[in-house]
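Class prep. Sample record?

___
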Amino acid sequence: MRRRQFWKRLGLFAVLGVVLSWLISCGTGTPTANNQQSGDKQTLEFWTMQLQPEFTEYFNGLIAEFEQQNPTLKVRWVDVPWADMERKILTAVSAKTAPDVVNLNPGFASQLAQRGAWVELDDKVPAEVRQQYLPNIWKASMFEGKTFGLPWYLTTRVAICNQDLLQKAGISKPPATYAELATAAKQIKQKTGKYAFFTTVVPEDSGELLESFVQMGVELMDAEGKAAFNTAKGKAAFQYWVDLYKQGLIPKEVLTEGHRYAIELYQRGDSAVLASGAEFLNNIATNAPSIAKASISAPQITGETGKKNVAVMNLVIPKDSDVPDAALKFALFVTNDANQLSFAKAANVLPSTVKALQDSYFQTAPANATPVDKARVISAKQMQDAEVLVPAMKNAKQLQRVIYDNLQAAMLGQKTVDDALNDAANQWNQLV
């Protein structure tokens, strides 16, 4: 996988994961048997998501080092295409032929955590080891108070800004909050005819708009899982997006187009701000060199809470593993400080351990810093406030659909904001 493809998938993570297929075979079309003995060695199987061939050399070296330190263990590495992982792991879990360590994201992994599919780690990972990970990121792999996975690598959005377009609109610095973004949107439209930004309201696409509710201080659900967003803050969040749409300050395509359109709009020079991963600056340089020259990175736009989004990849251990202790040893090895640091540098992602994130690579841009270097430092500094804004929950995608559908109705004038908010809450509570 080329680095561009890797970051295309990570940069759109508010849309993390749809997956699952037939069992991984050994090149014959026949499901593999887990935990086979290889001589006097015990084999554990490790699945990752679309990391070959870009990182084949890295993982071959990592596995060789682990096997050297653990001579009685052998690791079989299977890389699964991004679009197939959910289907494959669901099938494997159901058939009790799952691998021993799996790379997933907390949003999907939590759905299987509800079914007791993963080894619970709270009593298996010592407190001193757990403290090595960023506290907010550790929480991302918890469901109903129980830990089902180990944090691995991270990505967080930055605001990629067209400085030329901002200056033409008389804006001296990138907007930092949604309130500033609304003001900037009016100036940009009045003085340039362009848009400030694009955020999709397509229910099946990015969760960025839903995350904006949390950043604005909206509580999505209460302790019982019922709607908690039918409040003054919830109404203000609904009203914010409805007003921008009705005033023509965001494109009408927010109702029909996904996050990909945001990228196209920015690369055409028709929007001033793009929320994406730092590495996407390389794509812009390739696809739209003139826009890349005008682009700078700024911290992620947020609300009154100051919260920042982060996307997490984790490692989980299926409960049916025959070698759970060996699997945990390997998962901890993959996610320790040294190995997180080396992979983060290789893949231009962020590590989820405190010590690795404190490395100078993430703290200070070099003298000859590229735009990606500068954006990486901004991303890393955001981690103090970063968290998974929509935590692991039952029916998270249905919640997004309920809110987006009613928000669209309000944007189109089919419902008042009050009615849309009430209907969304009632529909969600009926689902619960």
